[in-house]
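Example 9 (inverse folding). The structure is encoded as follows.
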């Protein structure tokens, strides 16, 4: 996903401290809080690691707690609202048809065809937001602001292939599960360490939440990189030259104007780092070099 449109949450490792005994003259309540916190943490961990499925397209074992049918329903329910936020569908039927045709070609001729998702591709009228995103279950969008910057069909295929990667990678479902785990673990940390009579414990709770947010961002970056790799694969399988993805990254860099937070505090890797990873993925896909005849 080139723009975030679903919650990405992950977890940090926290070192917890707890007084062995309550202070003199103060009612002891750390023990019960700690016990309840441990129960919450165990429940969150068991719920997360106890729900896993194998993804035949990515070859990965994933922790998800919703079905593909639920993903599809979520996407269909959210699609009209997302389109409305970006000015609705683009008025040019030929432009919309091109987006649909390229997206459908990628799905039909790549490993994405193995999924059960009913993909639908939308060109939005938004002329200012340079973005593309995918909803759970196969609803994929690209804005006019990004579409108008693309110079070849291959570049469009790179953008759509990336979003298809998010869908078949089940990133939304993973994030829902991770969000529940994060909430459970963070709640356990706050409950077991917070003491209203000890100002220092409030800082511990705040640090726990901040660490969780930062690590969540890292998971977001990993999903972007995985979707880049899947896009290279899907493009090649569908007859497109995956090197067009490199040009897409340069277009995104130009659109950003070099502004933005450091990569560590961003859910997206910076374009330069993504280019290096894309080049690695292309080398893995074509160890002997990209063959002639692929559509640029």
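The amino acid assigned to each position is listed next.
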């Amino acid at each position: 996903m080139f723009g975030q449109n679903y919650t990405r949450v992950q977890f940090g490792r926290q070192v917890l401290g707890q007084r062995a005994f309550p202070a003199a003259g103060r009612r002891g309540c750390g023990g019960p809080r700690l016990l309840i916190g441990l129960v919450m943490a165990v429940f969150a961990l068991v719920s997360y690691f106890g729900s896993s499925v194998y993804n035949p397209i990515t070859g990965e074992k994933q922790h998800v707690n919703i079905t593909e049918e639920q993903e599809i329903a979520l996407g269909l329910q959210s699609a009209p609202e997302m389109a409305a936020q970006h000015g609705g569908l683009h008025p040019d039927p030929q432009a919309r048809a091109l987006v649909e045709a390229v997206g459908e070609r990628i799905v039909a001729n790549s490993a994405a065809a193995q999924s059960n998702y009913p993909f639908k591709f939308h060109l939005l009228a938004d002329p200012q937001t340079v973005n593309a995103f995918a909803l759970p279950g196969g609803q994929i969008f690209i804005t006019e602001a990004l579409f108008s910057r693309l110079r070849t069909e291959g570049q469009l295929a790179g953008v759509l292939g990336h979003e298809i990667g998010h869908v078949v990678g089940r990133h939304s479902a993973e994030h829902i599960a991770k969000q529940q785990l994060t909430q459970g673990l963070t709640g356990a940390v706050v409950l077991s360490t917070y003491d209203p009579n000890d100002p220092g414990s409030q800082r511990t709770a705040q640090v726990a939440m901040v660490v969780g947010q930062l690590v969540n961002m890292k998971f977001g970056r990993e999903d972007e990189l995985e979707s880049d790799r899947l896009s290279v694969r899907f493009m090649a399988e569908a007859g497109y030259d995956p090197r067009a993805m490199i040009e897409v990254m340069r277009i995104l860099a130009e659109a950003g104007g070099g502004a933005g937070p450091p990569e560590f505090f961003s859910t997206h890797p910076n374009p330069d780092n993504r280019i290096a990873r894309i080049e690695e993925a292309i080398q893995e896909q074509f160890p002997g070099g990209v063959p002639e005849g692929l559509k640029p």
